Amino acid sequence: MTSVNWEKVKDYEEIIFERSDKIAKITMNRPERRNAFTPTTVEEMIDAFTICRDDSTIGVIILTGAGDLAFSSGGDQGVRGNGGYVGKDKVARLNVLDLQHLIRIIPKPVIAMVKGWSVGGGNILQLVCDLTIAADNAKFGQTGPKVGSFDAGYGSGYLARVIGHKRAKEVWFLNHFYSAEEAYQMNWINKVVPLADVESVTLDWCNEILEKSPTALRFIKAAMNADTDGLAGIQQLGGDATMLFYQTDEGKEGRDAFNEKRKPDFDKYPKFP
Ligand code: S0N
Q1: Is the minimum distance from the CB of 198 to ligand 1 under 6 angstroms?
Q2: Helix (H) or strand (E) holding 214
Q3: 74 lines ligand 1 (CB under 6 A)
Q4: Could you read off the pLDDT of 87-144 as tens digits, one per residue?
Q5: Whose CA is nearest to atom 36 of ligand 1?
Q6: How confident is the model at residue 74 (pLDDT cuts 50, 70, 90)?
Q7: Do 237 and 223 meet the contact criterion of CB atoms below 8 Å apart?
Q8: What confidence tens digit (pLDDT) does each residue in 149-198 have?
């Protein structure tokens, strides 16, 4: 069994943010509400993911929920106002959409580690993670049409790409809950393991990923997302290519020539087939 000592990175109210060497773990921490998220929970996750994105020593991120009963039960219905979820500033918003986008563009693998309920907007968070490892007590489902809401973005379109249109419509039209084994059979998640082993197996996968080329992983993630995310996805893939180009002599020649007020000499660079 693989285990690590987690060290707290920063204090938050509604999440726990820890790391062990190159692995970061972000935990939604409202177990008494089955880890339902409020605007504060989401704001804090965005902050923690941004720290992970900017820290070049972090290579992989785990997203999970506190306790064994839930990954997340979605948006906290107790703070749902008329135009979104109402935060401490009394503004109604759906900032979870910004978090979904951040998880998609962060150029490092994000693994959802799911124990218990993965429901509504919480289930969409596990969906947008790159990989999902579930405990055998996990249950997956969308409740939107039952509670007067829907996610017509990744929660519908990307779900249809992942599990197929017929299955995605079944999930949204009937609002059934699916066991971890059923979700695995639907290609909704990557692996099912006994509850007691879920963190150990997740850490094993993180360590295997950390042995791989981070740039190769970055481009694979961006390329797969570009296929689904249109120009926004191509922007990420293009930005990654620019990052590499900046590091070449050819890229540096353009910058240096401008700064040195001379004509750039690009002729010496090969025109590969
Ligand atoms: C998760 C369920 C199935 C767990 O059942 P269980 O184990 O029997 O526990 P309960 O006794 O029901 O729950 C324990 C306590 O936790 C509270 N609670 C649970 N979920 C929530 C929640 N989502 N919000 C607030 N409180 C919650 C219970 O009330 C209970 O409290 P006490 O002890 O005081 O009674 C079951 O709890 C369940 O079905 N929960 C509701 C699931 C749900 O409908 N979630 C909301 C779905 N919608 C979203 O997530 C929308 C957000 C979103 O992401 C979005 C994104 C983009 C565009 C649109 C949307 C959108 O849809 O708005």
Answers
A1: no
A2: helix 214-246
A3: yes
A4: 999 999 999 999 999 999 999 999 999 999 999 999 999 999 999 999 999 999 999 9
A5: 73
A6: very high
A7: yes
A8: 999 999 999 999 999 999 999 999 999 999 999 999 999 999 999 999 99
Ligand 1 atom with the shortest distance to the CA of 146: 44
Whether ipTM > 0.90 holds is yes
Q: Whose alpha carbon is nearest atom 38 of ligand 1? A: 73
**Binding site residues for substrate, as ranges?**
34, 73-77, 85, 117-121, 143, 149, 246, 261
H or E, element range at 181: helix 180-185
Which of 3.90.226.10, 3.40.109.10, 3.30.450.150, 3.60.20.10 would CATH assign to domain 7-210? 3.90.226.10
Q: Look at residue 208 in the predicted model and tell me its pLDDT.
A: 98
CA dihedral 38, 43, 44, 45 (to 10 degrees): 90
Neighbours of 228 (CB within 10 A): 14
State in Å: Cα 188 to ligand 1 middle: 21
Question: Global pTM?
Answer: 0.97
Q: Does domain 214-260 sit in CATH 1.10.12.10?
A: yes
Q: Is 22 in the pocket of ligand 1 (CB under 6 A)?
A: no
**Domain spans of the chain?**
7-210, 214-260
Question: Cβ distance 33 to 73 under 8 Å?
Answer: yes
| b/e 132-151 (16+ beta carbons within 10 angstroms → b) | bbbbebbbbbbbbeeeebeb
